[in-house]
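Board notes (copied after class):
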Amino acid sequence: MISNRRAASLFKATGDLLQILGESRFVVMAYQNAARTIDSLEEDINAVAEAGGLQKLPRIGKAIAEKIETLLDTGSLPIHDEAAAQVPEGVAAMLQVPDVGPKTVQRLWRELDITSIEMLKEAAQEGKLRTLKGFGAKTELRILKSIDLLNRRSDDRTPIGASRPLAEMLAQALEEDEEKGVFVRVEIVGSLRRWRETTGEIRLLATSEFPERALQKFSQLPHVTEAQERKPLAVTVSLLDGPQATLTLAGEEDWGTSLCLATGSESHLDRLRVKAKERGWQIGDNGFTSVPGESEPGNGTQPSMETAKERRCFESEEALYAFLGMNWVPPELREGGSEVAAAMGDALPKLISASAIAGELHGHTTWSDGKSSVAEMAEAARERGYRYWAVTDHSVGLGVTQGVDAAALAEQRKEVEATNERYADSGVDFRLILGTEVEVLGDGALGLSDEVLASLDIVVASIHSGLRQDSQRITERCLKAIENPYVDIIGHPTGRLLGRRPPSEIDLEQVFRACAATGTAVEINANPERLDLSAEHARTAVDMGCAIVINCDAHSIGQLELLPYGIHTARRAWLRPQDVLNARPLDELLAMLKRTRSGRSIK
């Protein structure tokens, strides 16, 4: 079975290869558009094809639909294989370098005979790239930085947006097993339970009354290609699309210990081992065992040789942490920082949760590049339990998509107000907010005038282009937007795309300082391709006095389901509900926006 992600990747790669080979832009666009359509599809592409719905998808014609069917039926895309055979492997590999696209790769290959990333690096270091028209010293420096970023990128780690859905699918398949007792409980563990941005492998922990059958069933799941390694209580498998996955079985009586040890991180566990040793216990592969010559907690006595190998079991993590004299530590915080000291001192924060979010302040509709209407997005947000949702379609100035101008915003306001009136007449406690995601242009100016921005309820300012500008220039652009009295939020501040595009060189400390001074909020963008701000930067922002908003930046109804990625990023940043503006009721939120008062102090 071919996944949506795999199909989209193949069509994108085909478009890139054809562009390198000099194919017409219309043919290239057909494959690129197909890749975008499949990648954003909320249904399984296999189910769509089986129902005969491929040609009903946007930007999918008969010829492309037939190629999709071939891929799904045979597992291969012949035109991709043919193109790949004509492009040297090293030339195609240059596409991995951030900001080096097919057109650039074509010129590097055809005009300078560069056929590998290493040759590209040498040419840039020796100043040979500037012999190409349009290339200069800055271009060479940018390419060298991009190669360095590529080399530092961990090839064996998968972004959470790809690995977490796979883990959830595997866990759900086990939980839904019809044979009673084979899987009693199943939990995602490891870095995915801590919601790290990337993961090395998918790890699941389960209990079972029938261990042999449990491991066999896991090895035979539809998404599994083969078993890599088998142990008495664990099996590691390869997946059709994604990192390898390991299922480990634990005993019910020691579930808490196994869950804690399997969650990590190793640095956090090292701190727990220190606390255990202080109490006369050691933590190893076999869980908690007593240490000869060490005193038991609370009684000051020495264990005898007969009790030296005593083993302690914990059915829950809460019991384990209590045994060590501390509060239970949420998985997102278990990174070996100050969480153990905070847990010992009853000083862990009450972290933000999804239930605390009252609404979102950044979302899109068909007025720009969204897939659903204003009314459809409103109803989907209301059904999620939100009390408000902001319509913030892209402004003019963003070249890659249709943007709303002043006239379109005036028309959109009528639709928003009509929708709000329908909810009010029905006695429904829900309200749409009219805003925009205004483009920060190359010189720091905004895509809409102050007069237009002043007429809106909320303004998100974002940088989508020129992300490879030097630090001073891109920072100055952002600071200029922050200084605008009508900009309430800075959206996805670094512009990164996990595993695909590195963050810009923006000076976030300057940005946070300016946001704190002006009362401009900073966004955690929950889309797992972005997670921008990162947890580390979000914590710094709050420490410097900034308010945070958590938004899905949803372009479709299904993308409203991405909120957990933003919530868990905020939890990793130790954020509380009071740190997040859109955890507040609408009236309170509107009263705290920059346009309402200059600066804020959240207590």
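Comment from the instructor: Confidence is low (pLDDT under 50) at residues 297-307, 598-603. Residues 406-425 form the longest helix (20 residues).
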